[in-house]
Amino acid sequence: MSSPIYNKVGEGYNTTRRADPYIVSRMLANLQAKTDGNYLDIGSGTANYTAAYTAQGYKFTGAEPSDRMIGEARTNHPHIDFIQTKAEQLPFADGAFDGATGTFTLHHWDSVVDGIIQLNRVLKPGSRAVFLSFTPAQVFGYWLCHYFPETMRNSAAVVPEMEDMIAIFKQAGFKDVITEKYFVHEDLQDHFLYSNKNRPEQYLHPEIRNGASSFTVYANQEEVAAGLIQLEQDITSGKVWDIIKQYENDLGDYIFYVAEK
């Protein structure tokens, strides 16, 4: 069941990846979570977000394929149920859950189409699935493209465009899909890829890069090494702020998908 990709991302994951309170609040609000409901956190990783939802009084089961990540989750959160499984092979009964969440997981699935079909199957009618993800268009709006173009192209290639993702939800049986743009906010506690868009010096730290799959799984490492040298020079000279300004856009840095069955 274990995957080299998941396990590689999992190395030191909790060093920089923590559940962000604002993101937790938006996920639960979009989920319309109720304390008497039964929910699934798919691609739960080391359970940072699963545990944050549970801490607010909601019942969640985590689903995660990585040996490394699920082992850490079970050790740190023994009061939460975790099932080792891929999104495409959910071992739950039809209509088992009142809703589901997924935070930065879609780009790691073997098949988004098959995973969403499975997810629809295990949800009750009227329930919601809420994902925080990104689109290729958003990735190409990151100023990181200036320093790491191939790495960003590889990262953009692993998720569908927004219109295609909406179509996947609907073809799987979800009747309505809404989207919500997410722009990186100050004091963000979860250091995913573009979380430091306003703090370029942070990308010079290996622990920050190691928490993002773009730098650990999808990267051209020679390009990254050269890009970091240029980035450090531009930070010293101040040129980086001109480059950052050139990439300003209103596409949103990330996207919430809210699909209702």
Give a structural overview.
By secondary structure, the protein is of the alpha/beta class. It has a domain at 4-135 and 159-195 and 251-260: Vaccinia Virus protein VP39 (Rossmann fold, 3-Layer(aba) Sandwich), CATH 3.40.50.150. It contains 14 helices and 7 strands. The protein has helices spanning 4-10, 13-16, 21-31, 48-55, 67-76, 112-122, 136-139, 144-147, 149-156, 162-171, 206-210, 213-216, 221-237, 239-246, and strands at residues 38-42, 59-63, 81-83, 97-103, 123-133, 176-182, 254-260.
Can you write the helix and strand succession as a string? HHHEHEHEEHEHHHHEHHHHE
> Could you describe the largest sheet, including whether it forms a barrel?
7 strands, mixed
- How many extended strands? 7
The percentage helix is 40-55%
- CATH architecture group name of the domain at 4-135 and 159-195 and 251-260: 3-Layer(aba) Sandwich
The CATH C-level name of the domain at 4-135 and 159-195 and 251-260 is Alpha Beta
> What is the percentage of strand-forming residues?
15-25%
Q: Would you identify the CATH H-level superfamily of the domain at 4-135 and 159-195 and 251-260?
A: Vaccinia Virus protein VP39
Task: Quickly count the helices.
Answer: 14
Distance between the termini: 29 Å
Unreliable parts: 1-14
Could you say what the CATH topology of the domain at 4-135 and 159-195 and 251-260 is called?
Answer: Rossmann fold
Shape: globular
Derived structural class: alpha/beta
Major beta sheet, strand line-up: 3-2-1-4-5-7-6
Tell me, rounded to a whole number, the average pLDDT. 93
CA-atom Rg in angstroms: 18 Å
